[in-house]
């Protein structure tokens, strides 16, 4: 049979930012190219269906190559894990690399008759192709340590026919199906909630991180790892992963982790890249996605029933553990850059700040870095400015406890918790007509950052033992309340065991030094005991809190749950989160009281 002659291939070079004179011609060339590519793909699929025998041979050969590849990945994983345990080098140099990436495509839809009135395609939106016309931006100078501006040299990243980057221009050799799955999940699910913006498509993750990763292989694979880790944890918590799926995801996680560690070692060794925003974001992804199987397998439930448990994925990232090696490296890189304020990639400093707050809460330590809000307004990063109260408000409420041991900072923090709790109540009741989740997240994180930054009573500059003990008891109770209600960590990782033990010891020490019966201390004591009693559910400290609270309520003549709740609401008490556990605590107190009769 005579061989068929092939038409010679023609390459067309088009300007990614064409002038008006060439705009129509460029659109036609691109649409023609995409149309031919789609047609060839469809034709290829049809041809594949007609050659079953050859396809079987290819399939078996592919399986052998895949198994060989897996063996190499696992061997490489062992070697790179050993190499990655060292500290990050402190080489520092100016960034010099520059890259710009541009993909212009179109959706599976009919080309309009009037090309001048249409865009080149449908961009990636918060629902991956459901109508939004907002474009992502890609900046140049991606390895530079200077300002990252997504508006400079901005290009557009598009989805082609429900397929991510069919021309495989992404900077990795990982399977295209894996890349597509991870990028779709990150842009439509993960980043819009983790890095809030004016809209899902306008989140810093979608606008800044994805475009930057297209020019940075290290960041690209690190974000794939972060996407896989988040999705796996989220599905595990919902009981949605079966055996085969879990094995497949484990293999994918190992593949991405191994590749990222290798690329990170190379990037860190390059002085021009080691301190870039892309490398720091890659290290953050590796540091904050360590799996804790005990936490994932836990079936325990919190005694509190807090709202907004998933706000900014607190339920997922609260379950994931911190990788200590990568965490130390992250801190070193941030310090060598000059602090969080020197990071210019949108959403990077804010997300690191959130991660630090989260891990300080889990470890009961003070944050080592300042709070960075997601909101881009000019408001000061203070409780009063962000939550809208004044010094006079403090004076009229929690400031009255300053004469009994509160510092002004503790009183201000209690006031901020009270105001934020009111905002949460309005949000849950649907009373906020247009809730701004970015503001809500910033308020919550700032309150928690401030609370965890308060020094323990032993560090106070006071000669009054009574004051330091009252302060410490209320500080511990406030942390316990916040971690159960307003910044609700998963029960598998929330440090209630340590908190209730410390709270019990502080209360026992205070009883030796002074009498809690002096007004207004009884109000505080009732609240502290109730919070400690709920948090100690199923813990060894529970009977002690029940017994002491039962005795104090009897001394105060409190004979019903409703009467006790009146005192609790005078301090901090979110009914939707606390009432069920509070009533159970009261019932246990009643049973204890009857046993003595």
Total individual domains: 2
Series of H and E elements:
HHHHHHHHHHHHHHHHHHHHH
Give the CA-CA distance, first to last residue. Answer: 105 Å
Net shape:
globular
Beta content comes to under 5%
What's the Cα radius of gyration?
A: 29 Å
The tally of helices reads: 21
Biggest pleated-sheet summary: none
Strand segment tally: 0
Low-confidence stretches: 1-7, 49-162
Summarize model confidence as the mean pLDDT: 79
Structural class: mainly alpha
Task: State the share of residues found in helices, binned by percent.
Answer: 55-70%
Q: What do these coordinates show?
A:
Residues 17-31 have a biased composition (Polar residues). Residues 1-10 have a biased composition (Basic residues). This is Transcription factor domain-containing protein. The chain is mainly alpha-helical and 597 residues long. The chain has two domains: 91-289 and 322-363, no CATH class; 383-595. It contains 21 helices and no strands. It has helices at 20-49, 52-83, 176-194, 204-213, 217-237, 243-268, 277-287, 293-297, 314-317, 324-337, 348-363, 383-387, 391-396, 408-428, 437-453, 465-486, 496-513, 521-535, 542-555, 561-569, 575-595. The chain is globular, with a radius of gyration of 29 Å. The termini are far apart. The relative contact order is 0.07.
């Amino acid at each position: 049979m005579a061989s068929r002659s092939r038409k010679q291939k023609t390459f067309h070079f088009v300007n990614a930012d064409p002038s008006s004179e060439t705009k129509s011609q460029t659109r036609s060339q691109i649409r023609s190219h995409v149309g031919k590519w789609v047609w060839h793909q469809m034709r290829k699929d049809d041809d594949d269906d007609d050659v079953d025998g050859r396809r079987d041979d290819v399939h078996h050969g592919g399986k052998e190559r895949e198994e060989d590849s897996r063996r190499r990945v696992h061997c490489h994983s062992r070697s790179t894990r050993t190499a990655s345990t060292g500290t990050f080098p402190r080489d520092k140099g100016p960034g010099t690399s520059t890259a710009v990436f541009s993909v212009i495509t179109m959706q599976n839809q009919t080309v309009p008759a009037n090309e001048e009135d249409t865009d080149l395609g449908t961009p990636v939106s918060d629902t991956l192709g459901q109508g939004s016309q907002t474009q992502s931006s890609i900046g140049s100078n991606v390895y530079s340590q200077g300002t990252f501006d997504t508006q400079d040299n901005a290009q557009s990243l598009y989805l082609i026919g429900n397929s991510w980057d069919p021309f495989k221009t992404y900077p990795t050799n990982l399977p295209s199906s894996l890349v597509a799955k991870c990028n779709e999940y990150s842009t439509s699910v993960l980043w819009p909630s983790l890095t809030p913006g004016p809209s899902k498509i306008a989140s810093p993750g979608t606008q800044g991180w994805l475009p930057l990763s297209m020019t940075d292989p290290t960041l690209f694979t690190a974000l794939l790892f972060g996407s896989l880790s988040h999705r796996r944890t989220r599905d595990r918590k919902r009981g949605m992963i079966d055996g085969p799926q879990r094995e497949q995801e484990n293999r994918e996680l190992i593949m991405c982790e191994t590749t990222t560690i290798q690329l990170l070692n190379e990037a860190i060794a390059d002085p021009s890249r080691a301190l870039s925003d892309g490398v720091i974001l890659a290290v953050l992804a590796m540091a904050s996605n360590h799996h804790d199987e005990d936490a994932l397998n836990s079936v325990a439930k919190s005694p509190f029933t807090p709202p907004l448990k998933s706000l900014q994925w607190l339920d997922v990232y609260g379950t994931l553990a911190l990788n200590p090696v990568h965490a130390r490296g992250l801190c070193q890189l941030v310090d060598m850059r000059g602090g969080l304020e020197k990071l210019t990639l949108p959403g990077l400093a804010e997300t690191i700040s959130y991660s630090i707050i989260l891990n300080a809460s889990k470890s009961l330590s003070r944050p080592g870095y300042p709070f960075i809000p997601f909101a881009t307004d000019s408001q000061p990063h203070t409780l009063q400015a962000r939550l809208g109260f004044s010094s006079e408000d403090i004076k009229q409420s929690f400031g009255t406890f300053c004469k009994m041991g509160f510092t002004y900072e503790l009183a201000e923090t209690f006031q901020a918790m009270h105001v934020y709790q009111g905002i949460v109540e309005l949000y849950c009741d649907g009373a906020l007509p247009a809730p701004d989740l970015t503001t809500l997240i910033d308020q919550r994180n700032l309150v928690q950052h401030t609370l965890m930054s308060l020094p323990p009573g032993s560090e106070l500059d006071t000669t009054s033992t009574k004051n330091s003990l009252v302060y410490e008891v209320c500080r511990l109770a406030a942390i316990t309340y916040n971690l159960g209600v307003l910044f609700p960590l998963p029960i598998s990782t929330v440090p209630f065991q340590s908190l209730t033990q410390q709270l019990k010891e502080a209360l026992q020490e205070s009883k030796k030094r002074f009498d809690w019966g002096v007004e207004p201390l009884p109000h505080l004591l009732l609240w502290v005991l109730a919070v400690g009693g709920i948090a100690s559910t199923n813990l060894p400290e529970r009977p002690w809190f029940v017994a002491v609270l039962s005795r104090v309520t009897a001394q105060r003549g409190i004979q019903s749950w409703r009467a006790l709740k009146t005192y609790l609401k005078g301090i901090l008490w979110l009914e939707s989160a606390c009432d069920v556990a509070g009533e159970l605590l009261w019932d246990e107190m009643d049973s204890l009281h009857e046993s003595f009769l």
